[in-house]
Design brief:
Chain lengths: 412, 156
Amino acid sequence: MAKKMNNLSEDFPILQQKVNDEQLVYLDNAATTQKPRAVVEAITNYYYHDNANVHRGVHTLAERATAQFEAVRKKVAHFINASSEEEIIYTKGTTEGLNWIAASYGETFLKPGDEIVISYMEHHSNLVPWQNLAKKKGAVLKYIDLLPDGQLDMDSAYKQITDKTVIVSLAHASNVLGAVNPIAEVTKIAHLHGAIMVVDGAQSTPHMKIDVQALGIDFFAFSGHKLMAPTGIGILWGKSELLDKMPPLEFGGEMIDWVQLQKTTYKKAPWKFEGGTQNIAGVIGLGAAIDYLESIGMENIASYEKTLIANVLPEMLNIQGIEIYGPLDPEKRTGIISFNLKGLHPHDVATALDMEGVAIRAGHHCAQPLMEYLNVAATARASFYVYNTVADGKKLIEAIKATKEFFNNGIV
Amino acid sequence: MGLSRLDNLYRQMILEHASHPHHHGTLENADHQLELRNPTCGDVLTVQVVMQAGKVSDVAFSGSGCTISQASASMMTDEVIGKTPIQVEQMVMTFSKMVTGESTKNVEEILGDATILEGVAQFPARIKCATLAWKAIYQAIENGNKESTIGFMRHD
């Protein structure tokens, strides 16, 4: 291993600060992650030395920018084990990727009466596009149940996916429950019924080795900013044979082959989907983030986070009046821990923790149907990443205990 | 600093209102009612109003929420009884200015005990929690709905 886990936070200038006079403990990584110096510097270097528009200029800077822009596409293909970089489409994030599948593949191939199957744990970005598509097309949106511990109910998956199912779309890892879904197994069911398998990889890609071919899936979307890259850049991966059949969605520069007065031919995938000037600096930043992650190793990141959670979770469970949502076995979850404290609203908890320097999220986490399913209005959510330590976990637990005391006793 | 700064937000009276909210429940013969949702946290609050002789004669709220939204709703119900719609509007505007840190006149005179929520201004993430109930009663009276409708959180 090239890097030592316990020193990683030194690579993140933002983490070296006090918030409300307390050392910052950043535990809102499921919302967005912090950026290492290497990523920020790659973007700065690009703007200082190589900035130009890609694919069109013949001058030196344009060639440099294009070479870097396309090199990252190869890097991403390798990162998620796609069979070709031509299956890698730049997007602005997971939401855009999922929307494009619905708007392009869905609009083209869905018929009235067809079924789309998702689950109760989906983020709104893997729910609303399908809901909207189903309404437009007269299709039916169905939900796979969850087990009491928040894992996907496979019996329900077998029931909900039928010969009428055209699209199955699931989170690889839940942004609330931390549960990791058995994607390969669900994909087999989907394919058995002739449906395609779409995977929302926003919460898995930062934390584990992704192999889209081993999963057997058809589409995979993820965001750069959740894995140390800048905001505004993401990836949609799709199998070539599917991308070739899909119409482009944004028309304009870059994506065309030849334009005449009354007709236009388009480039092939992935470029036919990339209309207009892309987020080139974001792409460069994504490349640097992948380099940084791979210098640690995705398998090492996964095992480090499992150990971290195995340390933190039992201590959290010991707090009286705490309820933790999602599977409790560290082997079956990521570093997202959603919880509530008896008699306390998560918003009050998050404000109190912030006063202790601990940054967490409170709310419905863009998963309102899941909140209803869990019968809660909202939850607090602490989410860890590879630069967090056991000491951060201890600080969280101390801060939770102090919060309970504050509200139980009134004024401290 | 730690939790001591929390005292600015969670004053004793606020904690008491939140744990034992006034006018919490539902009314049989409401003249106005409205449900308002806080999209950032998912809290839902319903406000019902009975008018008599051009003044608020009774009011109730239901729904659950955080300490700040519950305390604010409880204090709001205490303060609006006996007020005309124009006075309620002035209270809502004053409250909104107070918790967003904008300067405004005669705050204590207009808002009474609810002035204690002025500490919210130091916690920008919690302003929407504090204003939910006030926006709900404003919209309820403004819309004049006898049937319950769903209002919208507008950006201030």
